[in-house]
Amino acid sequence: MARVFVSTVINAPASDVWTRVRDFNGMPKWHPRIRDSRIEDALPSDKIGCIRNFHLQNGDMIREQLLGMSDYDLFYSYSILETPMPLTNYMATLRLTPVTDGDRCFAEWSAEFDCEPDVETDLSNGIATNVFQGGFDALKRHFGG
Q: Is a pLDDT exceeding 70 seen at residue 20?
C-alpha cells in the first residue's frame, strides 16, 4: 500500500481556511488543477456518501465519495471511485489544526492507495506535488502567505 503525506502552515486561522475548503464541491474555487465540479443526484455537498464528479484542467474526470466530515475537528475524508490514474482503494483526508502561535493553521493532506509497484513512486510524487502541495500553495496565496 502506498502512502502520501504533505503538510504546511498557512498564515490564517484554521476556521478561515476551513470555510474555504469545507465545501466538498468547491475545489474549483480554490484548487488550480480543478476545472469544474458537481455533486451527483443534487445531494448537499456535506452529506456523507455524496459523490463529487469533477474535471481536471487537462479534461480528466474523477469521481470521489465523501466518507466523513467534522466541523469540530476540521477534516474530511473521501475515496476515489473513478480515476484515470492506475490505482485502487484510494482513501484520503484533508485536516486542519489551529496553530495558536500567530493564529495560523497547520494543514495536512494524506492518502493511501494500492497500485502496481512500478508506478508507485510516480503516482505518489504526482499526488503529493500536483494535488496536495498544489492545493496548499493556492491556499497560501489566497491567505497572503
A: yes
pLDDT digits (tens, 9 = 90+) for 49-74: 999 999 999 999 999 999 999 999 99
Q: To which residue does cell 502520501 refer? A: 4
90 versus 100: the higher-pLDDT residue is: 90
Question: How far apart are the C-alpha atoms of 6 and 106, rounded to whole Å?
Answer: 11
Q: Which CATH number characterizes residue 82's domain?
A: 3.30.530.20
Helix (H, G, I), strand (E, B) or coil at 100: coil
What range defines the domain where residue 84 resides? 2-142
Mark 87-96 as b/e (b = at least 16 C-beta within 10 Å).
beebebbbbb
